[in-house]
Amino acid sequence: MNRMAGRKPAAWPEADRAAWELANTVSYDVWDDAGKALRLRPWTRKGYARAYGIWLAWLDRSGQLDPAEGPGQRPSPERIAGWVRTMRDMGRKNGVIKLYLMSLHAILAFLAPGTDTSFILRPGGRSLDELFPTEPKPFTPHDSGDLLEHAKALHARGLTDRDGDQRWKALRDAAIMAMLYVYGPRHADISSMVMGENLRMTRNGQMIARFRETATKDKRWREYPLHPVVAAIVRDYLELARPHLCGPAEEDWLWWGKVGEPLTYRGFEGVVRRRNRDFTGVAEGPQMARKWLTETAKNRSPEAAFDAAEVAGHTPRVALRYYAQAVDYHSGGRHGAYISELREQLGELADRAYAERRQRRGGG
Fold it and tell me: Which PROSITE patterns match (predicted)?
């Protein structure tokens, strides 16, 4: 069995399906539990539902799916262990297994609120990171400042091009890539930006990017003024290109693809991959900009690593990891410079000692 086929929500047991529908139903009664999942992004809800459907399908295939049980009654340490064994037998990588377990735990908060399912995240008191270690994929680092120069060159080309689709898209793509390279927002955040909500102008003309706590991984508001260089590129897109791309459409989406059609999640990724291929030779996706940003900060100073983690919305644990890497990096550099200096000094001392020795032997 190579494919993990799951059940769609319509095929879930009645209690599970009703609980999920309630969590996804708009309600104006502040006292009920309806609509709680609506604070999640659509693709997050879809991912949770997919993982839960795979969980239900495994229970069914293993003869453990009892329609009389509720969502909170089905998970147990023994069943979770059996599901993990099956995924391992199927060759699923640690990162995939960890993702499904985290998604199962997350969706049960909506399907069975109040049920203690903490054992899913800490089997036997050990963390998922410890049980399912993952190795970061190798990548070629690029300095974010150098990448911004590519975005600026694309912007300049868009300003001088003749009016037309090529010009509008050059200005749009330059704005997208400049924001990615300098701030590293998550793909889901930047691709779904809305005018006025996620991008606004202050009275003094400053441009502010902001993301709600429900749209960020660490559940914190993310708000920062755009650097003047980035703001100028984004402003030219708004004034010169966006009106042509959005056409008569009245939606407030920031990014537009074909005339009258907002860029989709996948369409945004396609833009980024094409431009990264033009700039670096490799068609990397939006996530790579975050890695480039943190690597750039790490290489410049430990304190910059903290700043990059804060802007990118990393958790404190991830921020500390980047800071520690930056400290190691710069400590190693200073130590290497010190050793090189000692080596030069010792080399000079050795040269003088051997010269004196040769002179004594020659004189004898």
Answer: TYR_RECOMBINASE (PS51898)
